Amino acid sequence: IALHNSCLHRGGPVCTGKLDGDTLTCPWHGYQYDVSSGQLLLDRSAKLPSYPVEERADGIYLRIPILIRDDVDIPWDGLDPMAAEENGTPAPVARESCFSVRKLQPGQATRVHVAGEPVAVYNVGGRFYATHDTCTHAGGPLSEGTLEGNTIICPWHASCFDVTNGHVTCGPARNHVRSYQVRVDGKIGYVMEVAATVNGEAAG
User: Fold this and answer.
1) Following DSSP, what letter does each residue of the chain receive, concatenated?
2) Structure pTM?
């Protein structure tokens, strides 16, 4: 049997945890699984997705389901981002990612994706800032953390970062998080694909 390498609690890499007999322990927060079935020992009604394994002469093969759907052709040309936001339609953004200014209130954070990377956007007293969404300590989602002034506190281990420049302000994290430029145009906010710089070097 093969198990999905993402803890049901916070997505920790369970395969790097300790294996004691049939018990696999997630290295992040200690959640334990029965490796023979993927069941969570704390609640056996919950389990990791599992995949059949086939041993052949030339190696070991996994049977992982693949979802296939037809391509959808969406005509973005000429679509106005402002009108799109009003109609609830995603705006056509090539090198930027956008968010609704109206929906992101002061003291709140949200997640967008820029060039495939998760980015956290913060509203600090009506001014918007953005950093990479992944904490540099253990990968916690900063967009799910607590925003106090211009400081975001990671929800996993309470590392602190200044959202205006990505600087780490308290541990256990030691490295800065990458920061991004934000542009606001009416009701739409845009996170630029090119990262902002700190002291002439990209943060992160």
Assistant:
1) -EE-SS-TTT---GGGSEEETTEEE-TTT--EEETTT-EETTEEEEE--EE-EEEETTEEEE--------------TT--HHHHHHHT-----SSEEEEETTTS-TT-EEEEEETTEEEEEEEETTEEEEEESB-TTT--BGGGSEEETTEEE-TTT--EEETTT--EEESS--S---EEEEEEETTEEEEEEEEPEETTEE--
2) 0.52
Per-residue pLDDT tens digits of the chain, which is 204 residues long = 788 899 998 888 998 899 999 999 999 999 999 999 999 998 888 999 888 888 889 888 888 776 666 665 544 444 445 444 555 544 444 345 788 898 999 999 999 988 888 999 999 999 999 999 999 999 999 999 999 999 999 999 999 999 999 999 999 999 999 999 999 988 889 988 655 544 433 343
Q: Distances from the Cα of 58 to the Cαs of 3, 54, 55, 61, 78, in angstroms?
A: 21, 11, 8, 9, 53
Phi, psi of 53 (to 5 degrees): -120, 135
Sort residue 142 into left (φ over 0), alpha (ψ -120 to 50) or beta.
alpha
Do 193 and 96 touch, CB atoms closer than 8 A? Answer: yes
